[in-house]
Design a protein that fits this description.
183 residues; mainly alpha; Four Helix Bundle (Hemerythrin (Met), subunit A); 80% helix; elongated; Hemerythrin-like; Hemerythrin domain-containing protein
Length: 183
């Protein structure tokens, strides 16, 4: 079976997020080496992460989870674990944005705390995407039939992430350029 279009878009969005995590890792290296980093770029990435995944990415995944759970109720356990992560990731993003706020207003913060928060964020984002890729996506391909994918495609067609081939990225054009350069 070829990969259905909805899953192709989800994978493309994962690639865009992975590219942003690569940029964050490069900024972490800068911070470790020089004690400074492009805080505006990291803030842009985090602002995107705070705004877009819950509006564009997770709704597509949740549609697929519901369809798979309806066909195979045992899938609900796996879907629930990922759903919980979907609920918790925005809080982690907001916490990191608050850390950047503290830095920007000139309050001192131990470098190891900042580095730890940045590294943890990247690790958690990567682990979340890996769990979906390694566990959920193969299960979805096994459980859902052609008709299910057709229904999912009709429901998800209007849910496009602007950085993964959707509409104009607006204030996130810099991120789109970095992502396009990375892939």
């Amino acid at each position: 079976m070829t990969t259905p279009p909805t899953l192709q878009r989800i994978v493309a969005e994962h690639k865009a997020i992975a590219a942003m995590m690569n940029v964050m890792e490069a900024e972490i290296i800068e911070l470790e080496a020089k004690g400074a980093f492009d805080i505006d770029l990291v803030r842009l990435i985090l602002s995107y992460m705070a705004e877009y995944p819950d509006r564009f990415h997770h709704p597509k995944e949740e549609l697929l989870f519901a369809a798979a759970t309806a066909k195979r109720p045992s899938f609900a356990t796996l879907a629930a674990a990922i759903h919980d992560e979907h609920e918790n990731l925005p809080g982690a993003t907001e916490d990191l944005l608050k850390t950047l706020d503290v830095i920007e207003i000139g309050q001192s913060m131990p470098l190891d705390e900042v580095l730890g928060a940045l590294k943890s964020y990247v690790v958690n984002q990567r682990a979340h995407m890996a769990a979906e890729k390694d566990q959920l996506f193969p299960a979805l391909l096994e459980i859902l039939g052609a008709d299910d994918w057709t229904v999912a495609e009709a429901q998800a067609a209007a849910i496009e992430d602007p950085l993964a081939g959707g509409s104009d990225p607006g204030p996130y054009r810099r991120l789109q350029d970095l992502i396009l350069a990375a892939v």
